[in-house]
Amino acid sequence: MPCINGTPRVFFLLKAFHEQLFLLGGSHSIVITYLETKVVLMESITNGTKYECLLFDMDDTLYPLSSGINLACRKNIQDYMREHLNIEESLVPRMCLDLYKEYGTTMAGLKALGYNFDDDEFHDYVHGRLPYEILKPDPVLKNLLLSMPQRKLIFTNADKAHVERVLNRLGLEDCFHGVICFETLNSPARFNDEGDENQAAISSLDQKELEVVDSNLTVNKTTGFSKILCKPALEAIETTIRIAKINPQKTIFFDDSARNIAAGKEAGLNTVIVGSSELVPGADHTLESIHNIKEALPEIWEGEEEKDLMLTATAVELETVVQA
Ligand SMILES: [Mg+2]
């Protein structure tokens, strides 16, 4: 996994410097002064990074809406409403849309109306039958993501299994430092008071095995009602900011949903509407395709060239000092 802000590279370079110091005898003071100057210069570069974290929605953001996954998902939801909840067929399409608009996801709306069903069963039915084979590996996006120096997180309303399948199909499973998904925001851990404990709820893709959380326990302890926490609720975004320990002013939030972008802006995030050429309320930038990210937001890579030049120059200069 690439380092976040260059600090590991600075550390190893300094460690190498210190090992060299033992070989230099009487020239310690000159080299120490030289090192201190370099450290100050490097810290000024790494600390000056404009953005520390990039928060990505996944569906219709990391791959285009035109893929057809969205349509297939909606069909599966409507089938579930008919077949498992026995909702009158003629009511389903309208109800599906209205609940999505009102509650963030149709699933959250169904729960709020009092329909009782198992979360995992719903996700298995709705996502488990998607035609994932239409998603293809995206090496261009993979290279872009890996070249970004910031911490990168997925922030989605979908369940963990769906996230794994999509990222694997796109070839992006190694590109993110963690995932905030349905299970993250709807597990007992989110009711803990301290962020340290909630931090454990963030699924780590580094470990290749996402954390298992109990998604059945979604009863809000303060109200006693079943409630699903999801975008675009401000509470969902603020909870994410808290448990991921991110500074919203130094975080960019990418999402294809205008209402999610508006809520993200309300929470203090920098925002990018993806899949649109027109700004929406609360959006700082537009991105027709995630592939255009370098042209639209070059500031993400700000300071990277300077850091590389500094490290290269320092390594060469050190070698000169040591050999002198
Ligand atoms: Mg989306």
UniProtKB/TrEMBL annotation:
Transmembrane segments: none annotated. CDD domains: HAD_5NT (cd02604). Pfam families: Hydrolase (PF00702). InterPro entries: HAD-like_sf (IPR036412), HAD-SF_hydro_IA (IPR006439), HAD_sf (IPR023214), Pyr-5-nucltdase (IPR010237). NCBIfam families: HAD-SF-IA-v3, Pyr-5-nucltdase. This is Suppressor of disruption of TFIIS. It comes from Dendrobium catenatum. The lineage of its organism: Eukaryota, Viridiplantae, Streptophyta, Embryophyta, Tracheophyta.
